[in-house]
Structures are given as structure tokens and as C-alpha cells.
Fold each of these.
Amino acid sequence: MKTSFPKPSAQPTWYIIDAKEQVLGRLASRISVVLRGRHRASFVPHWTTGDHVVVINAEKVAVSGDKMADKEYHRHTGWFGNMRTTTMQEMMDKKPTEVLRLAVKGMLPKNQTRDKLLKNLHMFAGEAHPHEAQQPVPFPH
């Protein structure tokens, strides 16, 4: 028996989404589905045939509960005993797009395709974005 694969589409679609007042986790899961291409009928797990996603107003994303004060992000400098911890509120003040990027990154597969898929995610803190030439369409629900 032979397995057949669909042909990859030639042009990826560009989607735009306004993150204003949207819940962080639900938005990140929808973005990860589109980045992988799981919304298409021609989805193949080992191909990076997903679409581009442009996120505007990333600084206005909503979270439930006390996550702004309680949730912590950890990173390590590489030196002994140098674990750096940042709360979500501090992260939103410094780099508001990084919170959403880390949420999407955690929902993508932990293999070599993750970095390739994240290159198709374009996030901006405000309304303006430089991707008007790609003619992004509204995000699928």
C-alpha cells in the first residue's frame, strides 16, 4: 500500500488579527494552528506549509485572573546561579510582543520546524504594521 501526499500550495496566505481584548491562551492556540497549516485540508505534519500571521495590538491582549502579577518567565544567562525571573507585568511593560510569542512558541511542536514556523509570525505592539503590500485577510475563526 502506498501513502499519497497532497501537493503543497504555492502561495501562503497572510492573515491579520487584532489581539485587542482577546484572551492570551486562546489566541495563541488559534495562531499556532494557522502557522502549522492544520486549518488546511492538505495538512502534512512534517511539512512547513502554514500561513503567515500578522498580529497587531499585542500590548492589549487580555489575561484572566492574577496572571499579570503571578505568572513568571524564567531564562538562564549561561553562568552558574544566574537564573533570571521576570513577571508578566514587567514583560508587558518592556516587550509586549514577547508574551504572545512565547505562548505561541510553547504550543508549536518541539522540533526543528518550530523556528521555521515562528518566522511566519509577525507581531506589533500597536496598530501600524509594514505588511500592507502582502494584502493580509482577516483571521479565520
Amino acid sequence: MKALRAQNITKSFGGLDVLSDVSLEFLPGTVSAIVGDNGAGKSTFLKILAGIHKPDTGTLHLGSEDITDNSAQENRGAGIEMVYQDLALAKRHDVVTNLFLGRESTNRGGFIARSQMRRRAQGIIEQLGITIPNLDRPVGLLSGGQQQAIAIARAIMFDPAVVILDEPTAALAAREVERTLELIRAQRNARRVIILVSHRLNDVFAVSDRIIVFKHGRVFADDACASTDIFKVVAKIVS
């Protein structure tokens, strides 16, 4: 697996500085949490990592590959997956369709290989220990936790190096939160780079190795979770 490195990243929108000289490295087999107030620059930074926005200055590297100018599609091909807060699921379509959205398998005739996709879908569902009674059911009829699990499963279907999670537990019930946290831990154990943005600090401390505080578009603090606590982090966010 590969490390992800951002160096001296800056970004402005309409003359407003959103990110200023952000340099961070994310290592395989670790969960790095990014926290901060609204407007701190967290979402913009994630979108730059995913290739949705381009930095004004600075560089991005995945392993030895320079991905600074990559599009979102190119970054996805390079091994960076992002699970958005709204999940970006096609809720009228079934589980199999959602897992392969935009990456459908085809047979020699160029037709969609539905049976092959279904077998792979069943395999990833079983591998992750997700409870989905019927893969043919529209995902919009599944629980919030099941939908989140489908979004995470889709992100790891093609063995990415990096998984970025934007507020993965924000809208979940307590039991579903714990199941989602278990999925995040499993991806760390698979030696992936996991980057997590969340306002729920209890969840952050439950799964993260490191917690990074953004403030006014800068890295204000970068601490091992073992060397800090929720009260110290809150104090840094609001100070």
C-alpha cells in the first residue's frame, strides 16, 4: 500500500483563502481524523485529495506518483476513494448496481455481466460481515446503517490505497454507528490509508490513530490520539 502526501497546499475561492500551506502525510494502516469548526477548510481539503478541486499551489503524491493535476476519475483509478456524507447512492437501484456504479463488468460481447457482478457483490458483503437480506432490494429501502455499509463496500470493491470518509456516522443510530466503526477498523487492518472527517469526537477517538485540527484553513494541531483527549481537542477547536 502507498502513503498519501500533501505538501504546501493552498486554495482560494473568490479571493477568500480557504487553505493555507497545508502539509500532511497519511500512512497505510492508519486512521487519521480531521476535525474543526465549520469553515475550517476540512471539506475543501478532502475534495482536493479526491481530485474534485485543484490546489492553487502545492503538490499531492500517492506513493511516488504525482497526482496534483489529476481529475477525480484519475484519482479514483489511482486508488483514492471517497465516501461522501450524502453517500451518493442511486437509491432506486439495487445493491449490486450501486456497488458497481460506473464500473460495471462486461462479458466478451460487451454486455453487462450481471451474474458475475452479483457473485462479487455477495463476496464483498460477506467479507465485510454486512447484513443485507436481499441484494435485489433498492438501497433506498435499506436502513441508514446498511446504506452507509454499501457506500463503504463500494469504496473498497476495487482494492483502493486510500479511503476518505466524510461524516460517516452523522445520521446513524447508536447500533449502526458501532457497525460502521467496525468497518473502518477493518480497513485500517487491511493496510489502507483511512482519512476520516467527523464532528462526533467520541467516534473519532474510537477508531483513529491520529487527530488533526484544522482552523482558518491551516493545520492547528496534529496529535496521536493516545497523547490527547476530547477535552483538549475541543479546546483547540474553539480557542
Amino acid sequence: MSYQVVTPASGLILTTAEAKAQIVVEHSADDAYIDGLIAAAQRLIETKLSRQLLPATLRLHRDRFPCGSDRTIWLRRPPVQSVESVKYVASDGTLTTLDPSAYIVDEFFTPPRIVRANGASWPAARVGPQAVQVTFVAGYVNAAAVPATIKQAALLLIDHWYENRSAVAFGTIASDLPQGVEALLSAESWGGWCDE
């Protein structure tokens, strides 16, 4: 299982002005650097939470449809706005689009999921790399919809990185993330994902 970015998100979850207010910078000489810090914090948080913060089109690749007792396709890049298509490589080798009436998208479940419609079954598909492809749009509607705890964690990261521009800070105890960031992100964590 892997994810491909089809259409990347545009924009950032924080403005340059918001970041500058946090780090108390009134000049514009570092604006490009600060924008880079915003982008880095956003990417780190997306990775840490396995969450898409701003809208992007993603494609989930699977080797097969789910089997066994749990016949669910999990979309581990919430929040999910919509599922554009579910495609699979049919037994004759053609890439086929699954009829949307054959499945139900439950974006309110944690994590979001695709389940078979009542009475439907997953089609016979080849087993192999990218045999099943789910294209979906994930991310909060816009930067204003991103939870305040995530934005605050980003601000703390930006402040820390702006003040400590090297990989090593002497005279301090080393940690992966500045104090408070882990606590803020754990408040937004949805816990462990179910295995497929």
C-alpha cells in the first residue's frame, strides 16, 4: 500500500504575518526563510499525524482488494473530502473503474474508509503492484479550517527553528520536537491505524 500525490496542495496553513507575530520579527528580510519554515512545519506535522492539512488529490495504490473478515479499504490521509474513483486491473488486464454504487465512502469514520455496499462484493481483480487504485481528495477545506492545536504546534516549531538555525543547540537537552509540540499533536492524533 502506498500513496501518490496526484495534485499537491497549494498554499500554507499559516501566513507569513502569523509566523512573524509568533517569532516577533518586524522586518521583511527573512520573509522567504520564514515561509520555508512554515512549509517545513506543515510537512513535518502531516507526516507525524498521517494527515493531509490542505486539499490535495491523492491516489492509494494496493496490490489487491481487501479479503478476509474485514473487507474495508482504509484511507489513512484524513480528512477525506471525496473519493473520485476506485479503479482496478481486471482479470483481462484492463484498468476498470468500479461503479460507485458498489461501495460506500465513510469519511466520518476514523480513519476514513470505503466499504462494500450492502449485497455487493469486491470484483475479481489481478493481484500485483497497483492492481487497485483509489483516487481521493483529502485535507481541510482551507487554512482557516485547520485545527488551532495544529497551527499552534506549527508556530512553536517555526519559533524554535528560527531561533536555533543549526541542527545542534549547545547547552540544552536534545529532543526531537520542542516542548509543547508533542502534546499539541497528541491532542490531534487519532491513535493507531487498523492493519490491513
